[in-house]
Design goal:
Layout: E1 5-8, E2 15-16, H1 18-30, H2 39-42, H3 50-60, H4 67-83, E3 90-91, H5 95-104, E4 108-112, H6 117-126, E5 135-137, H7 149-158, E6 166-170, H8 173-182, E7 186-189, H9 198-201, E8 205-207, H10 213-221
Parallel strand pairs: 1-4, 1-6, 4-5, 6-7, 7-8
Antiparallel strand pairs: 2-3
Helix pairs in contact: 1-3, 1-4, 3-4, 7-8
């Protein structure tokens, strides 16, 4: 896996962040007297970012707010989340061992996420994962963000990788669409936050656990 760059989405791919995100969402909703929402009701919105979660929750409550008020809710959400970013969020089983093994093999590792870069780095740092990554591209790192393919390509370049020798790992329709538009193979994890069945999105592979990933990486890398 030498000279290969592996790019990971973060939420729902490497780390199960849903509980902390929903806690921040409910904290923000409290300021406009909206009842707390259940995790499963907004789970599929997580890949779209905090604003998408807020808009989904407001729609469920049949509440319309002006864009400026939604901006205020977003700030409340982000302030709460920044302080409580790793209260219960944890890497999925097998993540730490996988990253250690990939690093030993000389694989370039990058993050491409629609979470803000400062929050991404804070979460990775608190979970002891940040030092594994050669490049981190959050939604505000570059002029574009997923599903724009420039976000993924930019993450690879930040990791000093070659876009022609790269593979994406994600959990959602956004991740798969981004990789396909960029012409980069993509592996989807079945345990993330995708709204649509992954089989409908036709990634190059679907895994149920990270123990399955190395075999798919070798297979896909042999075609690059």
């Amino acid at each position: 896996m030498h000279n290969l760059t592996l790019v990971f989405d973060l939420d729902g791919t490497l780390v199960d962040t849903a509980p902390d995100l929903v806690n921040a969402l409910n904290h923000a909703l409290e300021s406009v007297d909206v009842a707390p929402v259940a995790l499963e009701s907004v789970r599929a919105s997580i890949s779209g970012g905090a604003r998408a979660m807020i808009e989904k929750a407001l729609a469920m409550a049949q509440m319309e707010l002006a864009p400026a008020r939604i901006d205020e809710l977003l700030e409340i959400f982000l302030e709460h989340y920044a302080v409580n970013i790793a209260t219960v969020s944890r890497p999925y089983p097998g993540v730490v061992a996988l990253l250690e093994r990939l690093s030993e093999l000389g694989t370039r590792l990058a993050i491409c996420t629609n979470k803000r870069e400062d929050l991404t780095r804070r979460l990775l740092r608190e979970l002891g994962l940040l030092d594994h990554f050669h490049g981190v591209a959050g939604r505000d790192t570059l002029p574009v963000a997923k599903p724009d393919p420039g976000h993924l390509i930019g993450a690879i370049i930040l990791a000093d990788g070659n876009p022609n020798r790269a593979i994406m790992v994600g959990d959602s329709e956004v991740d798969i669409a981004t990789a396909k538009t960029a012409g980069i193979p993509v592996v989807a994890v079945s345990f993330g936050y995708s709204e649509r069945p992954l089989s409908e999105l036709a990634p190059d592979a679907i895994i149920d656990g990270f123990g399955e990933l190395p075999g798919h990486i070798r297979r896909l890398a042999s075609r690059l």
